[in-house]
Amino acid sequence: MKIAVLSRDASLYSTRRLVEAAEQQGCAVKVIDHMRCYMDITAHRPKVLYQGSPLTDIDAVIPRIGASNTFYGTAVVRQFEMMGVFTTNESQAISRSRDKLRCLQILSRQGIGLPVTGFAHSTKDIEGLIELVGGAPLVIKLLEGTQGIGVVLAETHQAAKSVIEAFRGLNANILVQEYIKEAGGSDIRCFIVGDKIVASMKRQGAPGEFRSNVHRGGSTGKVKLTPEERSTAIRAAKAMGLRIAGVDILRSNHGPVVMEVNSSPGLEGIEAAAGVDVAGKIIEFVLKNVTTAQARKTKSKPTSAVVDA
Question: Do 192 and 276 lie in a common domain?
Answer without folding.
Answer: yes
